[in-house]
Write a structure and sequence with these properties.
Length: 411
Amino acid sequence: MCALGCNNHTTASPGDLMDIRKLSRGRSLLDVSAVAVAVFSVAVALSAMGVRSAGAEPTESPNPVPASTTSLGATPVAKAETATSGVVLIPDGGVDLWSGPDRDPYFRIHENMALGFTHRQDDWLHVTTNCNDTAWVKAGDVVVVPSSNQQDPGNGFDVSEAVVVLDAGHGDRDWGGVGPSGLSEKSVNLDIANRVSTLLTGDHNVDWESGAVTAGTAVPAFRDVILTRDDAGPNDGDFEANLSYRVGLANAAAADAFISIHNNTVPRVDSDIPGSEVFYSSAAEGSDRLAGIIYEELLLSFSSFTADWSGGEIPGARSRLDPDTDEDYYGLLRRATVPAVIVEGVYISEPEEEALLATEEFRQAYAEAVYRGVVRFLTTDDPGAEPNPPEYFYYDSGTVSGDVCIVPEQP
């Protein structure tokens, strides 16, 4: 389970100052103390203004940008000029980060990245980087995707207004699991997440008995699909992303669902069926049902493949709690304020399952399972597989220190 990076108990405040030393290897960009004073002053001003965090109703975006800048999957919508929370997409050529409104820019962040924001001051947006530092951007320089007006899942849900955040687990030095022949989990997760994004941003028909997903109009494209790591981004998507940043995108976007794509390691038992696990947030409403539905769809997708399957002692929809706090053990799920799950498809550590993960056919089947699961969760009242009750987790899954996390710079 998530060899590195799943559990991070360091909670950063949205107002934490950007550590300039993290932004570029060995390059001093400006005096940190000056930044601290400036950002603190802005934070005080924002607090005094009572800035709210609310979604905006759809309309045309006032920020025209080249079509290629929406490659992260999201379409600019809706009163972007007044949005006080949401996600910004970095366009071609990158965008300057600022220590505060109307100060000098000090760093140009790489194109094709997504940054969450939860505060606004006039035309300035207070964003969080992949290293969980904060900075400011000019709204007119980015594609602004305002937070959604969340709908209640069930019959009548309009997926054309849905917002989903997809997280490709791990990245860069946080490599995740590695198969016996060297297949890297971080790369597999990225490919599967991009396949899910492609499905969610297109119109499809679904055969719910066979699981076949084909072109059609029964399920329209989702309004916005935001990727925490996009293969159009820096280093082809292989960059480090802090746990708070990943789930922070979903919270800022008021996403209808947050799905983190993973594959497992270190099985406990042999199994007659795939040992898929889907971990759900114990606190964010609807997460357990989302996990149960995705688990059912994984078993349907994987039923056409053969392997000596491996599993854990408890398959299916699960929740792990920290025995010291009674909160979710995994940092992604603990921080979620929207329906959130971590999907562990199969065991990359096992030779036959690694061999399947190396094929496009299996990755597409995995992606279609997640796609169907999200659609079922949002548009039906299906209960899905019954979730296992939360269990205490007494082990350490490991984490990667964020002290040397690098914010990618535009070349």
